[in-house]
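Severity: low
Component: inverse-folding endpoint
Summary: output formatting inconsistent between runs
Steps to reproduce: submit the following structure tokens with default settings.
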């Protein structure tokens, strides 16, 4: 009797916990959310919307940087509404990291060990998030997003929310990709550029996962004078071409078949012509997704795409997560689940009823013949489980550290061998080694010939490397950045 009763209690608890976490027992309700994007001029773009089966936009407005009282009044009027912030962080990093296949928790721990190497600022002063790539080509990669914590804190203070930790924080380039994917689904590479008053953000995704982003610094705005507008468009097109080449070298993915534009300057014919001329790639404006409804008839989705592309894309990402779908990237910080407040109230009632039922069943078990002995046995098992779980966790951490130690040792040995083999004028910027001993490194040289001839000849003459291949170079200021792949002569089986 006691065993059967315990089994029923455990099954009931498991079922209720699964319902509480997944929410499958409750039909999702729509929720109100305020998306606030920080602009380069220290102002704000705001969309007030309701997320459900579709996105209903209630209002959209732009607040100038000097009108902070308007921003404070808007937030005060939206009391109780979930708030998501998109800060304007020029130092944010979006990077695909080569990493061993492992569970999400193990991947997060391995990425944490590599932050000091991957980031241009201290890891202790960074807000970061990572997610394993699920598309077929990137099964051994993880997406890392990082930004200085002080940038988020400054944006919150400027918005008047220094202590409000319920604010969600999203990455602006991810919103651009979500906006483009909603109307133009793509399985391969996708490139999206958001352009607004001379500022530009370029984002690239592969297989529905963010893979690359860059803020393109522009001198001056798009301009109203014909000559300055042409120069601005040509400069932007060249920067996009350079970024696409960098993306191809770093990821090995195919080039995008089309470049999508959003923002106020997206419709300028001179801009589209410049991109098409430099890249020989079709250029299109992002169209309507069919997922957005307007509460006010004077607003249209096309106007939102032109004026609020990042905010609108962020809403689409939140809708995906609300439906249990995967967005193109994780959020820096998820908003408090006030968006499903009605649903959680229902779940709290379910939990209270469950507690009553458990108490009744537990009281009945006291009168079982073997209740005392069974309770003692189960208490011993419960006390032992944390120890077993801790041992398992320690074993997993040991395996991760051993893997990282072996990888770091291989990288150090390879760097030493490269330093000995390469000519002194060649600079090695970064190096990675996969589990099969394939080496990929980026470097800088004074000319393409120096990279393609001298480096290849040096590697062929070295006993440490075999099968060197030159994968191209791109000009950066006075030098050329190049990529070369080769293999370790021992196949990566160095002595331990």
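Observed output (run 2 of 3):
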């Amino acid at each position: 009797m006691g065993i059967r009763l315990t089994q029923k209690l455990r099954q009931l608890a498991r079922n209720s916990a699964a319902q509480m976490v997944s929410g499958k027992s409750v039909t999702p309700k729509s929720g109100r959310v305020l998306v606030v994007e920080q602009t380069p001029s220290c102002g704000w773009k705001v969309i007030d919307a309701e997320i459900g089966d579709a996105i209903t936009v209630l209002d959209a407005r732009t607040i100038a940087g000097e009108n902070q009282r308007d921003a404070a009044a808007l937030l005060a009027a939206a009391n109780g509404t979930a708030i998501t912030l998109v800060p304007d962080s020029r130092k944010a990093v979006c990077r695909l990291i080569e990493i061993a296949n492992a569970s999400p928790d193990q991947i997060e721990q391995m990425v944490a060990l590599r932050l000091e190497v991957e980031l241009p600022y201290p890891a202790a002063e960074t807000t970061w998030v990572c997610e394993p790539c699920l598309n077929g080509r990137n099964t051994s990669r993880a997406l890392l997003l990082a930004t200085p914590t002080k940038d988020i804190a400054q944006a919150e203070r400027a918005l008047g929310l220094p202590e409000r930790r319920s604010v969600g924080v999203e990455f602006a380039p991810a919103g651009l990709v979500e906006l483009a994917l909603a109307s133009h689904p793509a399985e391969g590479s996708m490139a999206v550029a958001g352009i607004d008053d001379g500022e530009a953000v370029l984002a690239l995704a592969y297989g529905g996962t963010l893979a690359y982003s860059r803020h393109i610094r522009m001198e001056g705005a798009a301009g109203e004078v014909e000559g300055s507008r042409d120069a601005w468009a040509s400069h932007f097109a060249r920067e996009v071409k350079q970024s696409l080449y960098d993306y191809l070298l770093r990821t090995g993915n195919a080039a995008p078949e089309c470049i999508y534009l959003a923002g106020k300057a997206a419709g300028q014919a001179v801009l589209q012509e410049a991109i098409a001329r430099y890249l020989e790639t079709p250029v299109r404006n992002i169209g309507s997704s069919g997922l957005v409804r307007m509460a006010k008839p004077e607003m249209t989705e096309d106007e939102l795409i032109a004026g609020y592309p990042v905010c609108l894309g962020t809403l689409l990402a939140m809708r995906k997560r609300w439906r249990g779908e995967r967005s193109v990237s994780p959020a820096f910080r998820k908003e408090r689940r006030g968006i499903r407040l009605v649903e959680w109230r229902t779940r709290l009632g379910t939990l209270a009823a469950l507690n009553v039922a458990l108490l009744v069943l537990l009281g009945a078990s006291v009168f079982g013949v073997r209740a005392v002995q069974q309770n003692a046995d189960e208490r011993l098992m419960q006390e032992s489980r944390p120890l077993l779980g801790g041992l398992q966790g320690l074993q997993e951490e040991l395996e991760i550290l051993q893997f990282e130690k072996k990888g770091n040792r291989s990288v150090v040995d390879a760097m030493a061998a490269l330093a000995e083999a390469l000519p002194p004028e060649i600079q090695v910027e970064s190096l990675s080694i996969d589990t099969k001993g394939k080496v990929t490194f980026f470097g800088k040289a004074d000319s393409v010939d120096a990279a393609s001839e001298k480096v290849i000849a040096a590697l062929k003459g070295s006993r440490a490397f075999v099968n060197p291949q030159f994968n191209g170079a791109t000009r950066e200021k006075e030098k050329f950045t190049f990529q070369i792949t080769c293999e370790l002569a021992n196949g990566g089986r160095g002595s331990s």
